[in-house]
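Lecture notes, continued. The same structure-token format from the folding unit now serves as the input rather than the output. Read the line below as a description of shape only.
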């Protein structure tokens, strides 16, 4: 490494109390859906980050007591020494690759419903728990506070036995008891733990003091603190009480891990915060107040931005959850100056959605995420094919691009044929919609890599039919021809076509992608897909026509986006654009410039005048090429040995699903079909 190399600063070791991080790349705690339930998956995923060069690799929230039970969500757990073997698996796997292991000890207070343990939830005062369940948390008395401190101390002793190098005190995301005590909205106590800031900080200070004593110089104590509640004057604000807390506790922890609350603000999507460093305006003061190292996050993927943060004294560590999921080898790629190889996070929060669903983590950009153990996938390595092979991939959407890239990585001779004049398929179309420009990275990363490969040929403007495919003579064909949005109104709510008069202008998302939409309203957008797309289209059309009514059988706009932490913002955006929102309604007819909707729960038909009706309901897989090829193969006389349909042409879903499908097909290529069938993937089954 050259002496005056600007990136060298990112690879300086940094002391955190008694331990030393080998560089400035810090994987902050993040959920992963493995939790305590799937320890092998958890350990292998975290180990991959360590192998990729992260200096610190953290767990997710780690419940310290049965009164902090986040079931059915799969989080980490450290209730007693029976949890140690699973935790050791993680620390040892991380240590093997030279990284430090950190544990985010958490007592989740009224954020924990305790559905598994059936224990009472605990809170500063008696209040409803913050998940939708008819239960109130009990007000903590002094004994409860004393117990909480004892549980936290015990957890630190256990964490040391498990081999962790860094233990956390956690006051963030409105998800921990320490944070609930800090926040004046939740803490309305009248004793010495409530009221003034000094009083509200008391519990956190005690936890930090206890932690230092228990750590006893064997491991470092990190403090994760949300400097701003993002609730305006009702909560803590970074330039007022947030700063005051940092001043009061400045030298107590060995490391400050700072962010903003709640999770939807900490992990804000690119749709609502397109750039890097969205939190800097809130967190950049921290380093001026403490002499201890500071880590912060901001969906950082640009090495120059990272260098500037360290040089300007904003952060000591480049913190990352999502960029480390999207590219576990990000630090290594920067160390080797392979910036072009960085698989940049697109800020879509599909990773978050897996935690929301309680299943192992997945990622749009990185299809190997969460598959490190059960499928033994590595994000950077893929075994070469057993026999040299020639493959044709038809369609260059996310599925086709990923499949072609991985087949090329496996040393196949690959031809990628795309009907249109541009590569990217739906990614290109969707990323042109308001707020989704970062999604284009899914296409750009793969196209960039494919263009560098000597064994991949790309043909644009090449619509393939059975004849041209057979003529090309590739023995292995992958059909990634995508799907088409329905024009007949069939969707989740109605399995029958909608009665539409021929005078009605009906549009689908495919028309919108092609720029075919009216410049003036009124427009009705009907969303029976209930995912994200209709909300984005309504936003676009509201900006273009100024007159949009959004009708959906769902109870809110784009309900699926609650899994990506966006729903409130999506609906607020439409409200701010004066979009008329009608929920719990399905369409009953469309004729003569009028759409009729009915309440799902009976009666109350409404008529809506409109110049155009946009139907966002369901897609039809475009597998016609595969169907006719199958006919030809059955008839004999083609050189085709294998034929596979992938991505949306097989089963329409998320972009993440299409990428995964393309990746899976490339990985499984030339695998013994019996083996694929038998070992779909490894499973973690409790030993009895
Ligand atoms: P996926 O999400 O499964 O990748 P997309 O709809 O994003 O699907 O992409 C499908 C791509 O396939 C589009 O770019 C489309 O132009 C292309 N395509 C569809 N049919 C053909 C065909 N017969 N020949 C070549 N390309 C095709
Ligand atoms: Fe980033 Fe999306 Fe991957 Fe999450 S799922 S890490 S937000 S690309």
């Amino acid at each position: 490494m050259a002496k005056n190399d600007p990136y060298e600063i990112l690879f300086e070791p940094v002391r955190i109390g008694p331990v030393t991080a080998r560089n400035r790349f810090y994987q902050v705690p993040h959920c992963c859906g493995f939790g305590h339930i799937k320890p092998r998956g958890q350990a292998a995923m975290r180990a991959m980050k360590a192998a990729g060069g992260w200096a610190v690799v953290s767990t997710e929230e780690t419940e310290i007591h049965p009164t902090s039970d986040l079931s059915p969500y799969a989080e980490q757990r450290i209730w007693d020494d029976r949890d140690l073997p699973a935790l050791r698996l993680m620390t040892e796997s991380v240590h093997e690759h030279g990284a430090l292991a950190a544990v985010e000890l958490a007592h989740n207070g009224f954020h924990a419903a305790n559905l598994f343990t059936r224990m009472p939830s605990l809170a500063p005062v008696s209040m409803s728990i913050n998940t939708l369940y008819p239960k109130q948390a009990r007000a903590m008395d002094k004994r409860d506070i004393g117990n909480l401190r004892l549980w936290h101390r015990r957890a630190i002793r256990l964490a040391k036995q498990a081999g962790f190098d860094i233990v956390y005190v956690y006051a963030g995301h409105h998800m921990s008891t320490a944070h609930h005590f800090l926040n004046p909205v939740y803490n309305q106590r009248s004793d010495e733990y409530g009221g003034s800031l000094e009083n509200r900080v008391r519990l956190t200070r005690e936890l930090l003091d206890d932690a230092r004593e228990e750590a006893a110089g064997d491991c470092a104590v990190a403090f994760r603190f949300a400097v701003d509640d993002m609730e305006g004057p009702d909560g803590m604000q970074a330039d007022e009480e947030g700063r005051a807390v940092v001043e009061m506790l400045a030298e107590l922890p060995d490391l400050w891990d700072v962010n903003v609350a709640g999770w939807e603000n900490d992990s804000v999507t690119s749709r609502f915060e397109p750039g890097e460093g969205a939190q800097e305006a809130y967190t950049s003061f921290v380093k001026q107040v403490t002499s201890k190292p500071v880590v912060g996050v901001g969906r950082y993927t640009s090495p120059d931005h990272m260098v500037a943060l360290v040089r300007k004294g904003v952060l000591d560590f480049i913190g990352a959850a999502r960029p480390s999921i999207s590219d576990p080898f990000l630090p290594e790629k920067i160390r080797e100056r392979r910036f072009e190889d960085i698989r940049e996070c697109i800020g879509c929060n599909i990773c978050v959605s897996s935690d929301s669903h309680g299943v192992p983590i997945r990622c749009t950009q990185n299809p190997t995420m969460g598959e490190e153990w059960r499928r033994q996938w590595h994000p950077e390595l893929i075994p070469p094919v057993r026999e040299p092979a020639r493959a044709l991939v038809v369609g260059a959407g996310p599925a086709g691009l990923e499949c072609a890239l991985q087949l090329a990585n496996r040393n196949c001779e690959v031809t990628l044929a795309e009907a249109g004049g541009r590569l990217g398929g739906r990614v290109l179309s969707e990323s042109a919609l308001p707020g989704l420009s970062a999604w284009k990275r899914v296409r750009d990363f793969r196209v960039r890599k494919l263009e560098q490969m000597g064994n991949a040929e790309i043909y644009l403007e090449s619509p393939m039919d059975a004849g041209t495919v057979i003529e090309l003579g590739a023995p292995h064909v992958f059909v990634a021809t995508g799907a088409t949005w329905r024009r007949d109104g069939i969707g989740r709510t109605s399995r029958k076509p909608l009665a539409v008069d021929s005078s009605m202008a009906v549009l689908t998302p495919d028309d919108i992608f092609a720029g075919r939409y009216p410049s003036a309203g009124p427009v009705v957008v009907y969303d029976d897909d209930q995912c994200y797309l209709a909300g984005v289209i309504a936003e676009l059309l509201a900006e273009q026509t100024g007159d949009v009514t959004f009708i959906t059988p769902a109870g809110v706009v784009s309900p699926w986006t609650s899994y990506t932490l966006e729903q409130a913002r999506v609906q607020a955006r439409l409200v701010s654009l004066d979009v008329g929102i009608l929920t719990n309604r399905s369409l009953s007819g469309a004729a003569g410039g009028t759409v009729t909707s009915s309440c799902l729960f009976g009666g109350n038909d409404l008529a809506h005048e409109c110049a155009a009706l946009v139907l966002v309901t369901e897609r039809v897989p475009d597998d016609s090429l595969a169907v006719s090829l199958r006919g030809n193969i059955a008839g004999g006389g083609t050189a085709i040995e294998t034929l596979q349909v992938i991505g949306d042409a097989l089963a329409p879903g998320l972009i993440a699903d299409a990428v995964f499908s393309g990746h899976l097909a490339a990985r499984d290529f030339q695998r013994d079909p019996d083996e694929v069938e038998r070992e779909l993937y490894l499973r973690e089954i409790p030993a009895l």
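Point for the exam: The chain has 23 helices and 29 strands.
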